[in-house]
Amino acid sequence: xxxxxxxxxxxxxxxxxxxxxxxxxxxxxxxxxxxxxxxxxxxxxxxxxxxxxxxxxxxxxxxxxxxxxxxxxxxxxxxxxxxxxxxxxxxxxxxxxxxxxxxxxxxxxxxxxxxxxxxxxxxxxxxxxxxxxxxxxxxxxxxxxxxxxxxxxxxxxxxxxxxxxxxxxxxxxxxxxxxxxxxxxxxxxxxxxxxxxxxxxxxxxxxxxxxxxxxxxxxxxxxxxxxxxxxxxxxxxxxxxxxxxxxxxxxxxxxxxxxxxxxxxxxxxxxxxxxxxxxxxxxxxxxxxxxxxxxxxxxxxxxxxxxx
Length: 308
What we know:
Blueprint: E1 8-11, H1 17-32, H2 39-45, E2 55-59, E3 65-73, E4 78-85, H3 91-113, E5 118-125, H4 131-137, E6 141-152, E7 166-170, H5 173-186, H6 197-209, E8 212-219, E9 222-232, E10 235-243, H7 252-266, E11 271-276, H8 284-291, E12 293-304
């Protein structure tokens, strides 16, 4: 593919982490008015085993970073991509080039594996005026929308009542990885799933290496839900809350989220972002009240079916 103008495509592994952080924060600020990305967020993103071979940065004059894209195979029928584009006069051209590049790389992987892959692009914030149009112009359709709730942790968090017989404990990756993965895959939450158990295990292990943790809820000794969270620079992240389908409606998700917020506050976090699939909430207003949500922003996933 021919690069337009004075754009240069580079390996993301050759770009300093702090430069990537500044790009994401500029995108967040432009889209929502608030930047939340931390260095630890980027470190987690680049820890994927496929990162070095399947992640690229687009630069302009003076090596200004214009866009960052990555692609991963997680054992499902889709290649999962993330794409961030710096706001400005070159954003549309940069976005279009990177989307086409991701499609080319997905086609190359399909040939290599002998199977067709769809492509899912995530992380598109509500307020982005460029990337949704570029994606739709190239054959993508809107898929799942995940809400990110901003919660104030400067005041104590009230733990939620546990379901009868419920018990929450820290998950031990070496011992609980299979249970965590089964909940992750079976959960009805939309958005990309890591179907490959080894990749999911590596993700949880890496999370623990950068101030993250996992909590597991059991009822009568059976795993019914988990939450993955991370503390960094005074900010917390609840990255995933998964509930077994048979245990929905018992308060498992709310109990796990509240327990994770208590732990994040103990780790000196003063605010937290919670990723929630609102389509799976039976009473979203109850979650707002229980957690003291200050602000909310939406993250949309776009999907393109395989062409074979």
